[in-house]
User: Fold this.
Amino acid sequence: MYGDFIVRKTKSIVQLFLAIFIMFSLSGCLPNNEELQVMLDQNSITKKFYIKNDTNVYDGYGKDKKVLDTLKRGKQYETADIKDNYVKVAKSDTNELKSDVWVSMDEIEEEPTYFVTLIVDVPNANILINGEKYEPNMRLPKGKYIINISAEQFLDKSLEIDVQEDTKESITLEFDVEAQKERLAKEKIEKEKIERKKREKERLAKEIKDSIYIDNTQKLMWQDNIIVSVAKKPWLSKENFDAKKDNDTSGDTAASYCKNIVIANLKDWRLPTKDELKNLFAQKERLKHVAADWYWSSTSNTNNGERAWTIHFNNGDGYSDLKDANNFVRCVRDGIKLPK
Assistant:
């Protein structure tokens, strides 16, 4: 009897020490509330959390960890410890766990979120949820959200959705008839504009080909249309010639003609000098239109103000003619850069 008492006493003492050891071990492994809060703040998570997706949980957080169980999406748990991007959940009467487990921080969230899938019948529509760009299968907490949708050629649409679970919404946009009419009108105008530019470019190219000779030797651009072999002008008008206004080229004169002529949208033409005409005569075979006659230059006779020099395009001779005489005119402009 005494022996049984000793055995019972010894057993009680062992159980007491074992309980003390377990309590000491637990208090040594788990952080206190202050330490845990610091770790929670450092990792930007809350003590209570939800499982984002059905996920495996482990017996530890190291490389050799083993799967112990699967936690279901949407269930709430409480953080007991944090190690290496893993959260420890201690077994309790409320969570129905068979043992303590570790779960990756990537699989937890502060509040439950749900998939929101929006199916719009117009490709590449612009979709905003509460002013933020919608991403396919995005997740949102419970609540009401304003959806705004816009797409070219379609009427804008706005609607409200109430997210309480995974939500899928099919959305149809109405065709914007007025916008389509406006778009077609703009396209027509733009097309006509392009056609006009094309025709103008073709016209310029033809006019340049038919009416201009490029003098690469003198870096000059010469008038070379049918008019240079048809039209004649005086150097001075009769009124100015009779009034002895030897340098007043106003009126219907060769200089005024060149000043006002427009060829291939180019306006800055002038009457050529005697030397320029003489050098052009050497290139006569390259010209399309030539009269075998006298052409005015802008060079006056320095010895007689009533006369100015002409060049004959049959033999290249020069002659100082009276300024009221009518001779052929071929205008020139500086440079050889053509309009595009």
